[in-house]
Amino acid sequence: MSTPSDGDDVTVTDVSSALEYWPSPPPWGWKADDLDHLPSEGPNGEPGFFKHVELIDGALVFMSPQRRFHQCVISGLRVVLNAQIPEHVTAVAQMDVKLGHRMRPCPDVLVIDTAAADDDDRTFYTPDEVHLVVEIVSPESEDRDRKTKPFRYAEAGIAHFWRVENNDGRPVVYVYELDLATRAYGLTGIHHGRLTVRVPFPIDLDLDKLPR
Predict the structure, then answer these.
(1) pTM for the predicted model, two decimal places
(2) What is the pLDDT of residue 10?
(3) How far apart are alpha carbons 110 and 131 in whole angstroms?
(4) Are residues 73 and 178 part of one domain?
(5) In a domain? residue 165
(6) Statement: residue 6 has pLDDT above 60
(7) At residue 73, does pLDDT exceed 60?
(8) By percentage, how much of the chain surpasses pLDDT 90?
(9) Residues 153 and 115 in one domain
């Protein structure tokens, strides 16, 4: 079997060849565009096997089933943000951001350009279209949500990042802003009960009364 070099474009044929190595990654590694060509079934015919998958540093990461807390915060933040942010931006849930050739995470909530959100054929957005990324920490994703993803979002130039933690069933939001000089996030506040910020837009959220 021939294997594509690292610089080759990824095609549907490459994805089919890659799955022959399953569960190991193919020798040439997974790439961001592969996610648009994964089959609907798994290697052994499992339905919806690749439905919830991210690409983190070239590795396919399967997302576990959501807990009710996670689902409620995603839904509530999206609704409240869309009621407050300007018309030229839109809050969307669980859409990919292509950060690079081998990095395509799926944040829980994003605030993106409305022009990008209006394109119903999109499967991912690019960092220049993203104004805010929100990750809700789950037990199985702690290291990714607290360390790996924030580092990559900052490296890609996304200006604002929120990390949501579960504190006995109540959301606590850690708000970060990008330092352009270091390309790293700085913590600007930890919000319990109420979140009020001026950037990237004036936002005032009652965290204990998010719509369910």
Answers:
(1) 0.90
(2) 41
(3) 8
(4) yes
(5) yes
(6) no
(7) yes
(8) 77
(9) yes
